Amino acid sequence: MQTKTPPEKILRKEDASLLSGRGRYADDLPVPVGTLHAHVIRSPHAHADIVRIETQAPLAHGGVWAVITGEDVRKLSDPFLTAVKVAAPQWALAIERVRYVGEPVAVVVAETRYIAEDAAELVEIEYAPLAAAIDPEEACEKSAPLVHAEAKTNEVSVREFSYGDTKAAFAKADRVIAMTTTFPRLSFTPIECYVVVAQHNAAENSYDVLANFQGPFSIHPVMARSLRVPGPKLRLRIPPDSGGSFGIKQAIFPYIVLIAAAARVAARPVKWIEDRLEHLAASTSATNRTTRLEAGVAADGRILALAWDQLDDCGAHLRAPEPATLYRMHGNMTGAYDIRHVAIRNRVVLTNKMPTGLIRGFGGPQLYLALERLMQHIAVELKLDPLDVIKRNLIPAAKFPYRTAAGALYDSGDYPRAVEVAAGQGRLDELKRRRDDARAAGRIYGIGFSAIVEPAMSNMGYLSTVMTAAARDRAGPKNGAVSMATVNIDPLGAVTVTADVTVQGQSHETVLAQIVSAELGLAPDDIEVILELDTAKDQWSIAAGTYSSRFASGTAVAAHMAAVQMRDKLKGIGAKQLNVLPEDVELAGGKIRSRSNPDNALPFGRVAGTSHWSPVMLPEAMAPALSETGVWTPPELEPPTHDDRINTSFTYGFVFDMCGVEIDPVTYQVRVDRYVSMHDAGRILNETVADGQIRGAFAQGIAAALYEEFSYNEEGAFLSGTFADYLVPTVSEIPEVEILHYESPSPFTPLGAKGLAEGNCMSTPVCIANAIADALGAADVTLPATPRRIHALMEGGEKT
Amino acid sequence: MKPRPFEYVRPDTVDEVLELLAEYGDDARILAGGQSLIPMLNLRLIEASVVIDISRVAELGAINFLGNRFEIGAAVTQNSLMAHLSLKQELPLLATALSFVGHFQTRNKGTVCGSVAHADPSAEIPLILAVLDGQVTLRSKRGERVMTAATFQKDLFTTGRAPDELITSVTFPTVGRGFAFREVARRHGDFAIVAIAAVQVENGVMRLGVGGMTGRPMVRRIVAEGAVAAVAEWAEELGGFEDLHASAAMRRDIFRKLAPRVIEEAIRCAA
Fold first, then answer.
1. Secondary structure of residue B139 in the 3-state scheme
2. Closest Cβ–Cβ partner in B4, B188, B250 for A118
3. Contact by Cβ (8 Å): B165, B19
4. For residue B268, which of B221, B209, B200 has the smallest C-alpha distance?
5. Is B45 on the interface with A (CB under 8 A)?
6. Would A325 disulfide with which of A287, A310, A676, A756, CB 3.0-4.6 Å?
7. Which of the four pLDDT bands, split at 50, 70 and 90, describes residue B176?
8. ipTM value
9. Helix spans in A663-753 (H)
10. Nearest to A302 by CA among A369, A396, A380, A378
């Protein structure tokens, strides 16, 4: 096992470009000569039949080349594949019916975006409005309007699972304590919206697309199938930089197909840039969930069993990878707790709202809002200290690696110790003192805790848990997650690295340079990292991309493997030139030298260039050391078992948060007074980068707790269509967070590192909700806890 | 999010502006800082066949301190007024409120008169103009007239400006002794849910102004003694409107609880 800890506080390689405006984003890149611009016309109705689309007038408008409607899309493409077989086809444009406000209905292609938008006003679309299904629970009722009539129901998936003996465990419990929570719709709105530039080559019937798609590349076959071409005929290129992603840039894929089809109809390259209004109304949303969670509890707060009833509202279409919001967390439904008896019922409903998908945290915020609110509620009900209830249920350190009831294999951790460290050194005492002082002065103050397990690097097979075991057998096995990275050497021995990630600001360049340089005895600055991705020429698997915090335990390991492979070859080559045994060779300080006689040394470049200039000098039977690809696939990512147990992710970090909040009785605003966040993400590869990820997730956790929400009225009108209505907290609204690390290296990866980019999206919303519940003595805290909601809680009146 | 086609004109004199307004009337829009106009054009919420850019009309660029009042030209940005040497000393209420107007970046472009012309019911500048009993000077080819703040702003985005008129300046009197300003917004720089300004005009007598409750800022003379009851009664009269961020009841409760504090602060400030 590799035990080197790379140096900390390495500056980011990316900063010079990004901070001086030299990033290369999709919109910065040159486009082919003759590129036209697209504007998407969208549904103003939540649910309506499209009676007629009149395109004569816009086509006559100067500068307009094409107007594409659902009929063109029907001719040129197929509906998208979905994870659950259900008669609810989603096409790249609405056909015959619109099902949410913002759904694409037509595309105008013109010489400029201005002309396209002018011409769009000339497209006459006649709608016949229909009743809409908006509330998820009402949408499940027999009388509800059907979002997809062919499906005959809105409740498109119901699965029940049982692990252990839940019935017996509940019977043994002293108390059954239950809670219902609702997680809102929201997004994390990247600064850069979607960008697609598509060309169609009619001679080859192939598509060439530039898009700021983030992966996973399991979506590539979905797009190719929709465009009715084999995979290689859809060349997808990802720009070197992307202006934020947060999961959202997975859901660009219907637009890749749409703009590709538009380019085919227009017979010219077509560029589309999504604007902010389009992005807010129709890109994607976190899945709103209603959860009823029951715990069978002993009098001392020990939880004997859990019974979950989860209802996910996936909006108008079950767009891939939904209903993954439910299933990504399936293995870790017991969180950080040693609970052996669990029943789960998962239901998925379609409504006339924007389709949902990945948003940073993906399933975790929904899961832990219910579980950790219930933990606090149990403490209140049993008159116990909430932290004691958490501690009493934590998985003991001796049980690791720990197999959860639902099948996750938690790799490492010492949760009780991490909690002790975080609460120690006077931190909890200080928090309590601040609360007591505030309360003594008549102010409203509360303390919240949350303890969560943060899964990372998804098992590509987890989603098949939505199928029955028999259906899985018929469909063929799905599991694993392949990571790939390549180390290349040029004639003068310069080293470049490519990898299967898409760049969105996660500092992949810095960390890859760090890992590879450490093995090759070079400095990080000696390594060029090139991460734009081209499906026609670069290494990729279905697991490629940047999502599910897969980098630290996936691509970083593949890069480490590639570097070790290259290092070992260079040792062999160097040994021959230095006249020593390969075991005596080391790579250090830019030299390849004898370990026993360091004066016997050659410059790295001289040895590394040998494969270019003089392959004859290589050791016998060695292939030239020009390019080494590391391919990493951890054996722990097995398919679901016949009894539906699934190791949903590869690594499992731990986060423990505690905070103090004060509520202003005049303005009804929640102020976060103190926030402490303890992370165990195994070995930290780069502390600056790690803390940057944690701060980012924390800011978005604050957003979900207090600010951001997509609102619809009862008819399905979209109420948060601008940044004046959809409030993103800025630097002024984000409180300070004290970040702590506790390192339990993962035994399953050579680097020992786990993903950590999503933890606070999962832990922070509920930690603040718990503090608000403590402050107000209220059980029913709805997120985001806006002043309007706090006012309703404090002053009575309407529930909003 | 691209505007419909429009003509762009950038005159150098007020007379040219008035000429264009006389010709185009409602079809013309005045562009000063563009912080509200440009988004509305891009969202295609409003029509304009001609956009008249007054940002470089020299005679509209002046800030005049005239002893008992500030006269602010139509091209003066919010940040340049904030940077005026006498403002903090002579008109601290306005200086305080300006720091709540949007963000540093938007104040670099946004103008004082533009905010008054736009007439957002929760904007800070129209509230301060109203509470100080300020004036709006309008000119057209027909001549010049002066309106009080109270008569100028009629309702949500609605003012007494005629289609051929240009706001050439607004005037803030430096009245009163002791002031206070508070606002409640979701985030720093947002439009206020409720904004409250108080200025003491006589001993223990305030002009109290509130923005965000109704379609325009409202002002009332309130005696500090008994302010709690007076404010509570006024809150009920105003009602308050509903939006995504606040219910009417929440607006009333904030106003009821916060206004007496603002009055106290103004009195403390005077002392």
1. strand
2. B4
3. no
4. B200
5. no
6. A287
7. confident
8. 0.95
9. 687-702
10. A378
For residue A542, the SS3 value is coil
Q: How many CA atoms within 13 Å lie on the side-chain side of A27?
A: 11
| Structure-block tokens of residue A342 | 């669990």
Report DSSP state, residue A331.
Answer: G
pLDDT at A8 over 90: no
Collect all residues from A whose CB is shorter than 8 A from any CB in B.
113-114, 117-118, 121, 275-277, 665-669, 707, 711, 719-720, 724-725, 727, 729-730, 732-733, 786-788, 791-792, 795, 797-798, 800
- Count interface pairs A-B at CB distance under 8 A: 74
Q: State both tokens at B183.
A: 């606002």
Long-range contacts of A228-234 (CB under 8 A, 24+ apart): A228/A76, A228/A77, A228/A78, A229/A205, A231/A535, A232/A206, A232/A536, A233/A204, A233/A205, A233/A206, A233/A207, A234/A206, A234/A207, A234/A209, A234/A260, A234/A535
Residue in A121, A729, A791 closest to B187 by CB: A729
d(CA B138, CA B150): 15
- Paired strand residues for A126: A52
Q: By the 8 A CB rule, do A105 and A168 touch?
A: no
Element (H, E) at A675: strand A670-680
Closest C-alpha among A36, A34, A14 to residue A24: A14
Q: Which amino acid is at B78?
A: Q
Contact criterion met (CB < 8 Å) for B2 and A729: no
Contacting residues for A10 by C-beta, under 8 A, at least 6 apart:
A510, A514, A524, A686, A688
**How many residues are recorded in chain A?**
800
Record the tokens describing residue A56, joined without a space.
């004569």
Q: Do A798 and B186 touch (CB under 8 A)?
A: no
Say which residues have a Cβ less than 8 Å from residue A661's Cβ, sequence separation at least 6. A445, A446, A448, A670, A671, A672, A673, A768, A771, A772, A775
Q: Which amino acid is located at A785 in the chain?
A: A
Using CB atoms, which residue from A114, A665, A788 is nearest to B245?
A788
**Contact by Cβ (8 Å): A282, A102:** yes
Under a CB-based contact definition with an 8 Å cutoff, are residues B204 and B225 in contact?
yes
For residues A766 and A361, what is the distance between their CA atoms, to the nearest angstrom? Answer: 13
How far apart CA A222 and CA A577 sit, in angstroms, is: 51
User: Hey, what are A77's tokens?
Assistant: 């493409």
In contact, A407 and A479? CB cutoff 8 Å: no
Statement: residue A61 has pLDDT above 60:
yes
Write out pLDDT tens, residues A116-146.
Answer: 999 999 999 999 999 999 999 999 999 999 9
CA dist., res. B147 & res. B150, Å (int): 8
